[in-house]
Specification:
By secondary structure, the chain is mainly alpha-helical. It contains 18 helices and 2 strands. The protein is elongated.
């Protein structure tokens, strides 16, 4: 048990690691003993004076901890130039653990500290010159990669991965490939170990936005899309791309209903994509009636010429229900689908809807050519 905090757990996270004094052998949590030694340099249990080796190890471990924290903060753009000005709490920690130069270098590598910002650096001329050289080298490398981006593929990434990571530019590089659809949504996982969750989510989001997605791709990356809360985006892209058809809507039904997108899918993809015909409308009838889209569905089929002399009787009940019979015949007349050979088949309807005069005008020239 750690006699400072009176807890038994050790090594449950990096700040709860065990630390044993070399001289007396007593064990404490590392974070507990680090705080205790700021009060005095004696063992909290036996009051034995702490050996210099122990003090050095505590300093080194704490320095590594802060170094990692600073580097992570810089890579995630949570630490900038304003945080390391002389007098700030972070600057004091940097100075206490001799991390000033390393933090400056990390800022340069991440592109936060540029050549133009060197006047903000409080360091010796030698350090400033070194940082300038590092900043120039980074800018040159990023510009070189930018000029080649259209020719680079994921096959090239292994040769430049380490340097891109060093310059905190791997995420940027992958985003460029994603925007060009060179790095497809089903391949993003190959950089999983090199990027954090926030960066990976952004890659998936950009891929959906710029390249769209197919039903097969959604099945392949569904777990990732769910993890990053992007499934609704994926379904919306399917709808916008009109990739939802009568053949796959049942496969997608659960997801579409979960995100309240079934009506939008029918309206924008099934009807808007002109995939609804007299051959499959019965399959969709229940949904179309539920979402009050039957009239809109028939409007589309009329405009597309899907309702013909051969199937108008099949559609009659619905067309009469939605007062669309006259519109069907007007469309047929306009498209010259009513001729001398079939006019008797629909004469009663044409007279009912006062369309005989329009038919006569449409087919008389036809008769003239035939005579």
């Amino acid at each position: 048990m750690c006699t400072i905090c009176l807890e038994f757990a050790f090594n449950d996270d990096k700040n709860r690691e065990a630390f044993q004094f070399a001289k007396c052998g007593h064990v404490f949590h590392f974070d507990c003993v680090e705080k205790a030694l700021k009060i005095n340099n004696n063992c909290p249990n036996c009051r034995e004076h702490i050996h210099a080796v122990d003090q050095a190890e505590i300093f080194i471990r704490k320095r590594l901890e802060y170094k990692h924290a600073f580097q992570e903060g810089i890579r995630k753009y949570r630490i900038g130039l304003v945080d390391i000005r002389v007098g700030t709490s972070k600057r004091k920690l940097m100075e206490e653990y001799d991390l000033v130069d390393e933090v400056y270098s990390a800022l340069v590598e991440c592109g936060i500290l540029t050549v133009d910002d060197m006047q903000h650096v409080r360091a010796t001329p030698a350090v400033v010159n070194r940082l300038k050289a590092e900043a120039v080298e980074r800018d040159r490398y990023i510009k070189d990669i930018s000029s080649k981006i259209n020719r680079l593929t994921m096959d090239d990434i292994d040769s430049i991965r380490d340097k891109l990571k060093r310059y905190n530019a791997l995420s940027w590089f992958c985003q460029q490939l994603v925007r060009r659809c060179t790095l497809t949504i089903d391949k993003i996982d190959i950089v999983r170990d090199d990027l954090n969750d926030e960066q990976l989510r952004e890659l998936y989001r950009i891929s959906l936005q710029h390249c769209g997605v197919t039903v097969d791709e959604i099945e392949l990356v569904q777990n990732k899309l769910e993890e990053y809360d992007l499934m609704v985006n994926a379904y919306e892209e399917l709808i916008v791309g009109q990739d939802i058809t009568m053949d796959n809507i049942e496969v997608l039904r659960k997801g579409l209903e979960t995100y309240d997108l079934m009506k939008v899918a029918y309206k924008e993809s099934i009807i808007g994509g002109f995939v609804l015909t007299m051959d499959n409308i019965e399959q969709a009838r229940e949904d179309l009636e539920k979402f009050n889209l039957m009239s809109e569905a028939y409007d589309m089929m009329i405009d597309m010429g899907y309702i013909t002399m051969d199937n108008i009787e099949q559609a009659r009940k619905d067309l009469e229900t939605y007062n669309l019979m006259r519109e069907v015949y007007k469309r047929m007349i306009f498209a010259n689908k009513i001729t001398k050979n079939n006019i008797d088949q629909v004469r009663e309807d044409l007279e009912k809807y006062n369309l005989m005069s329009k038919v006569d005008l449409a087919i008389i020239p036809f008769f003239g050519r035939r005579v």
